[in-house]
Amino acid sequence: MRFVFLGPPGVGKGTQAKGFAAQRGIAHISTGDMLRDAVKNGTPAGLKAKPIMEAGGLVPDDVVLEMVGERLEYEDAKPGFILDGYPRNPKQAEDLRVMLEQRGLALDHVVAFELDVEAIVPRLSGRRSCPQCGAVYHVAANPPKRAGVCDKCDTGLIQRKDDQPEVIRDRMKTYAEKTEPLIDYYRKAGILIPVEGAGTVEEVRGRLEAAVPVEAA
Ligand code: AP5
User: Fold this and answer.
1) Are 16 and 205 in contact (CB under 8 A)?
2) Tens digit of pLDDT for each residue in 34-84?
3) If phi over 0 gives left and psi between -120 and 50 gives alpha, with beta otherwise, what is residue 134?
4) Among the listed residues 82, 87, 84, the one whose alpha carbon sits nearest the alpha carbon of residue 99
């Protein structure tokens, strides 16, 4: 049960990955979350990543490869994993293939979430995140019980710096130029599963579960 969740910024990869991973007892590995932790903790990788993330670019491949390689060794990743936000360009896809091959593994499925640009921008601009526990909300689609406060740990919610309109534009451009070609790459490899990302969180979850039933995982 080794998955990649692919798709444009804000399509809902993280939202779907959390529930899907918990339901199947596999690890949810988000390179965006790992990089944000590194930035918060001021590690060397975080210091390198911070200005790049704030500008909507891609952090160097070697930095991300090392993080993912270490994370795959954790016990919770042994039964399987979802890579959310990795790979993000052809070099990373090749790095991943080699890294898995060295462990005698391969990807089973690449789920590609699809959504029109017009629907993406409101999802990103309405996103609020908990800087403490990482919970993700949306001001309209998935609001916290008390406005601006995390349901799980009572911390004040924040808006990600890269969710500002001008950075969203740059992230979309980076996605189109560098990441979107992976859809064809995995289609040719015969492991691509497209999933329509429009509709409510529950509707998308239903489509995802129908596309990858437990027995097929
Ligand atoms: P990362 O954190 O991976 O950002 P991303 O790919 O742009 O994806 P997002 O987290 O923005 O969106 P998502 O698809 O997970 O959507 P979500 O579920 O939150 O990366 C950030 C940065 O880190 C990158 O720009 C890059 O600089 C760097 N980075 C990361 N990985 C890297 C790599 N491999 N190589 C190099 N650099 C890397 O949903 C969005 C919002 O919509 C939420 O508010 C949610 O509540 C809401 N929502 C979700 N689903 C629905 C729905 N069905 N209906 C209504 N609202 C919904």
Assistant:
1) yes
2) 999 999 999 999 999 999 999 999 999 999 999 999 999 999 999 999 999
3) left
4) 87
Q: Which residue has the tokens 């932790």?
A: 37
Indicate the average pLDDT of the chain: 95
- Name the 3-class secondary structure at 196: strand
Instruction: Give the residue numbers annotated as catalytic, written as ranges.
Output: 13, 88, 127, 160, 171
Q: Percent of the chain having pLDDT more than 70? A: 98
Residue nearest to atom 24 of ligand 1 (CA): 53
End-to-end CA distance of the chain: 5
Question: Using a 6 Å cutoff on CB, does residue 127 contact ligand 1?
Answer: yes
- DSSP, residue by residue, 26-85: -EEEEHHHHHHHHHHHT-HHHHHHHHHHHTT----HHHHHHHHHHHTTSGGGSS-EEEES
**Could you tell me the pTM of the whole model?**
0.96
Beta strands at 136-138 and 127-129: parallel, antiparallel or unpaired: antiparallel
